[in-house]
Write a structure and sequence with these properties.
Blueprint: H1 2-10, H2 12-31, H3 41-49, H4 55-62, H5 66-69, H6 78-93, H7 95-101, H8 105-136, H9 151-178, H10 183-194, H11 196-208, H12 214-235, E1 238-245, E2 248-250, E3 253-255, E4 259-265, H13 272-290, H14 294-302, H15 308-329, H16 332-341, E5 344-345, H17 353-378, H18 380-388, H19 396-419
Antiparallel strand pairs: 1-4, 1-5, 2-3
Amino acid sequence: MPSVFGNLAKIPELRKRILFTLMMIGVYRIGVFVSVPGVDRGIVEKLFGASSGGFFSLFDMFAGGALRQMSVFALGIMPYISASIILQLLAVVIPALDRLQKEGEMGRRKITQYTRYGCVILSIIQGMGIAFYLESLRSNLGEAVVNSPGWGFRMMTILSLTAGTAFIMWLGEQITERGIGNGISLIICAGIVASFPHAVYLTISYVQKGIMKPFTLFVILVVVVLVVGVIIFFERGQRRIPVQYARRVVGRKMYGGQSTHLPLKVNTSGVIPPIFASSILMFPGTLANFIDKPWMREIQNALRPDGWAYTIIYVVLIIFFCYFYTAVTFNPIDVADNMKKYGGYIPGIRPGKQTAVYIDKVLSRITFGGALYVSAICVLPTIMIQQANVPFYYGGTSLLIVVGVSLDTVSQIETHLITRHYDGLTGPKGPRIRGRSSRG
């Protein structure tokens, strides 16, 4: 292990990237404690603390504790993720957006720019809903959360929350470009990890007060260890399709003739489906604070994280986004065409269209298994909260994000080391960490 950190220190570029990433995450965590002007943070903490395990605990988990602090970062990065979902869905039905996605770097920049605009629009809408909701909040003693309600407070809240989300979006992009990658995922992961000490403190206090039995705590710890092991097993799981390259003569040299494989991951989409699904299910709750109608309140109550309707819709959305994101990031037709172009073929399968059909068939099967695995992991928090009286929203979703992002980050660091002829993080004889593809 000392030699591993010694290798990290020997690469100036990698060292700078790691330090830059840590600095950006530090800036994000400092901003969590900057409250929205005009809000009594003490009353907000008491009110949101009483709603442990519900909608606010779920939202607060993705916001890194900023909602409980009523920080300028209270919206977190979810508006950006929601805007990304909307654009990817629109690209399926709008040919112009689909062409932009296929135009390489310039098209990607255009899509990113549209996503930023969408993020700002969604932040304004959600910020307005939160402003109206804060004005309606009262403590048990009748104390108002907002000192001076009115349009002045509302406009300041909208401006603060929108600026906070835009700043987080900028931090994520900077980590992706100048850090070690996965900027948005790392910010969400940092927020979840930051809540672990408070969760541990709450659990210990519950055991000491007799609210939670020691045996229940032991069972929870065992489940957490098992879930981490299952996540690592499936995140590293691959289906390897054998590929054979025919020999071809170019001039006086012979190329090809070797055997290799096409690795298809069991969970190609990674942590994106639960994040996307959670983002969509959070939006009606925020909208209900803005539209004060009985039918909207019924929708908000029906979509509580501890309700059966939420769980069913959550699982359906996860399965949908597993297939959707896999289809967006992996095109069997392009893979088959590239294999045919360089003389590659799958034994027993005709090159070209038949190869694409075969790859798509295999990918659909393993994606279904991966979607069931992600769904099973992500509904675990609800079961733990209901059955074990867990005092916080914590379980499969957070573990999946933390473990998945950690594997990706370690894989990227190890890639930097290997490309510079250093041993990976596991040493010269250790296994290589297989992470997912880099995503911002």
